[in-house]
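Bumping with the actual sequence this time:
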Amino acid sequence: MSSADWADRALAAVMARVAVTEAAVGARFPLYADPGNGSWTTTGRGSWAGGFWAGLLWLRARYTGRDADRRAAAECTARLEGWTGADTAARGLILWYGTALAEGDDGATALRRRGALACLRDFDTERGIVPWGGAFGGPRMLARVDGVPGTVPLLAGAGPAGAAAAAAHLDRHLGLCLGSAGEQRPPAWRFDDEAGTWSPCEEPRPGWSRGRAWLLLGIADALLRPEVAAHSPVRLAEAAERLMAQDGVVTGPLIPPAEGAQPDGPVDTSAAAITAVALLKLARVPGAWTDACSYRGVATLSRLAEAHLSREGDGLPAGMLLDGCYDAGKGLAVRHELVWGDFFLALGLASLDGLVDITRV
């Protein structure tokens, strides 16, 4: 079977799974699905992952070319409107990935613009970040690596001031979360107003593979946008090289453990899918890493498709990306299908098929 054949078949399976999921969840948002029967745990507003469901529907619309599928995607995206005013940097995940594939849809374009301006208004110039915020509870002034992906390209769409904020936001997270060679730093930090310093949070723990993937994705998105990269091109390139050298991103297991401190614990296919997309993006950035990133990105997608995607006859709906780990520390959904894992697998496969320009999503 040629490389095109396996990618085509995997993408077809994931798109078929989208249709099954759509029928099951209705107007709610899927979050994670039981690996035993494929049933979804859902949320009413989408939580931080709602944009990935909208993104999957837009991918399905591109794949089928059907007007009905475009309408379904547009209706889902419109339900993300309430997040524009939410106090959280997770708006990057929600409003970027929920709209970036909505080519030609005026409603999605307007929503993305409002989200970008809202993030820019919330940018804290003194601390150099869009705070993680209080929308999900807990302290507001946090810097978390999952507040980087989506936020960088979202801010970049808000003109020169937005591009400068995107560069500063990423730079602050790199300074806090990216250690030197061989050093694992916490992926979340809290600002102490009284002391005027940042201190590490206990959770998530160092070695969180999805956190590393989120950070690599943010770096790739910055390097692909000249208006952002121009602020610190050398630092961004060095950060990409340092992160890829850590924990075997380009040489270690294709599917990493969810927690580096638990190498025999659950793996996280969603971290692998995010990493694959980040590497395919970096392969479009001129550099010594181009060939290695391209090879590793495709190899990871192939492993996910061949070893972790459910098939007809498994007793499950076909097209489920299994073995995703939501939260290993809490024992929450540790071998499940995760909606963001499905999204990044589909996005990577669609880029191999020429359905999507991965530099623009």
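The tokens above came from a reply further down the thread. The two ends are 29 Å apart (CA to CA).
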